[in-house]
Each structure stands twice: as C-alpha cells, then as structure tokens.
Design a protein that fits this description.
The protein has 377 residues and is α/β, with parallel strands linked by helices. The protein has helices at residues 46-55, 76-81, 93-101, 117-127, 218-226, 257-290, 344-356, and strands spanning 5-14, 21-28, 37-40, 83-87, 111-115, 137-138, 149-153, 161-164, 167-178, 184-194, 199-204, 233-239, 326-330, 365-368, 374-376. Helices cover 24% and strands 24% of the residues. α5 (218-226) crosses α6 and α6 (257-290) packs across α7.
Length: 377
Amino acid sequence: MGAAFEIVVVGCGGGPDETNLSSYLLKAADAFWQDGIVSLEAGSGVGTLQRLLSSNPRLFQGEDTEDAAQGPAITAAQVYSYISDYLITHTHNDHICSLVLSGGSHSGVRKRIRALPCVVDNLQETVFNDKLWPSLASFNEVSDDAHKYLYKPLQHNGEHVEIGHGLSARAMPISHGCTSAGKLYESTAFFVRNDVAEKEFLFFGDVEPDSVSQKPQTRAVWRTAARLIPDELDTIFLECSYRASRPMSALFGHLSPPHVAAELRTLAHEVVEAKQRRASDASFRSAASHNGTNGDSDGSSRPRKRPKVVAAAGDGELTGALRGVRVYIIHCKEQVSLDDDRPTPDAIAEEIRQHLLSGPDLGVEIVAVRQGMRLVF
C-alpha cells in the first residue's frame, strides 16, 4: 500500500530558539498542496518557512507535476494561503506564535481552528481578546473579513471530524502539568486519519508522564491506539523535551527519555492486551457460530457470556509488540552542553533507545525529527 500522509516540518523544537517552534504542514499523500493544507500546531510560520525554502526550494516538490507547489518560485506566503485548518493542541506560545502573528495577513480561504473546547476557550479569552491581540477569530460561520479564523471545537466524543481534503481527526485530552495555582493544564492528542486509505497517525501535544500526573490521561490514548496498531496506525509523534539528566522537579509537564521508554512499554502492554481481547472475541464468536447461536445463548435457557477479563500482559509478552511502529521524537528543547556536541534531538533519541534496552525489545523504531524534513508515510 502506498503512503497516506505527507508532512513538511516547519518547526519541531520547543524553544528557546524562536525560529524552530512546533509547526507541521500536512496533507493526504495523494492530494495536491493547493487542495488544502492542515497545519498541525502553529509555532513557527511564514518567516521560518521562507528561510527553509531559500535553502531547499524543492521542499514541497514531489511526483505530482500538476501541484501548484511544484512551481520554481513557490513562496511561504503562497503555501500558507493553502491552509484550510489548524489543529492546535494547547495555547502555549511555542504552539500558536504564528497563528497569532499571521492572523491579520492570511490570504486564501478562511482558516478553521480545530481544538478541544478548553483550548478554544483559552484562545478566545486570553489571545484573540483585543488585549493581547486583536479579536481575529469568531464562531460565526458567515464569512467575515474582520475574523480571519473560525472556531470549530472538536469534542472529546470518540468521533473523527473532517478537517481537510480527505482527512479527519479525533481529539483526546492529555495532561500537561499544572498551573502555578495547582490547576491541571490540558493538552491534546490527535488521531489523524486518511479516510480513503483508512490509515491513521497519532500526534501528541505536550504531555507529562502518567506516573506523576494528578490526572493520568495518556493510558486512555494508548488504549485507543492499541486497537489500531499496526494495521491502521503505525506512526506516532511524541514529545521528549529534555535530556535524561533533567531532574523530575524541572520537567514542567514534559517527558524525558526514561519517561518516553516507560510510556512506550505501557503502549506495548495495551497492544498485547488488545490482541488478546480480539482473540478471545474471535473464539467466542466461533463457538457461538458452531453452536448455531448469535453468541447470546448456547441453545439452552442459559445465556452465554463473553469473557469479562483479559489477563494483564507480562513483560515477557512485550517482545516485538511494537514491531512496525515508528515513533517520531519532537519538541526537543535546545540545550548547550560542553561534553556533547550532537544536535539535541539526536542525543535525546539515542537516550530513549538506551533506556528501552533495559526491558524487552519492543521492536519500536525511534526517529529524531529535524526542522526542514519532508515526511511521507
């Protein structure tokens, strides 16, 4: 089967470099860029993309010669005019900077902001409020030159919603630490689906380890993903902001390599248990069919019951559980180290691999994302 998605990485860092902030331009692999782009996050924007295009004019050039983005003089402004939807995980500045700064300058169709209701509320109350920035977004569906953005909240209801040319998304809340007042701050994990190819990928916003969260929510995301791995979902974008040496007290709602390794083992447990449940259900249906019933009874007056419990997977069952899954590591915060001259994303990815060696070989592939990459998967 061919590729389902194409992403250009405008920015993948989490600061302090303001020219490399979370921003990923997405389309279905078989679509043209001018058909409509989904911007996953909106940290870095037009200026950064123009710099990338100056060094790599072929960044958007693929096999489709009819794609307007294939032209020799494509500009960042043209690319951003193709955006139809923004998927925003949360409202920290490194994820919305270009959404704010470019809000009054966009051309093309009116842009829809897709986010959980709490994220939309934050944008409305603290960003586009005529104080921090002009009120450039509204809920009014009627075309309005004064409001360049249209708020379109995504409910946490298990449903995928159309977000662009052949794409849909499902949003789930995740925990990103606490405010100074001790209140939970939520971010988002998006399941993005190519509706024609019936393939998905999972994209995490900033997230803290379930092991320290006042409201652990990541396992629910893993459980949802496990049902799709590997046939429908084999690609995950996961943050790892800091090196392993970072103390727990200074993670501020983020992951470091030992926590990424622990979370991936949790996912592996969920994958094994999902397979066990499928096998149990298949056995139940087979027995019901053999007995000439629909599974609700065994032909007597006593109803047949589905197995209620699947035993928790032991560590010995995790070997190869994530084979075929690729995890792209994002949101690495640049750090200056006197004893390591490797790029921070590469160093963090290698630390994750080393921490994974302490347990069963999950079979997962760890890839450090770099600014300017073009990913086709």
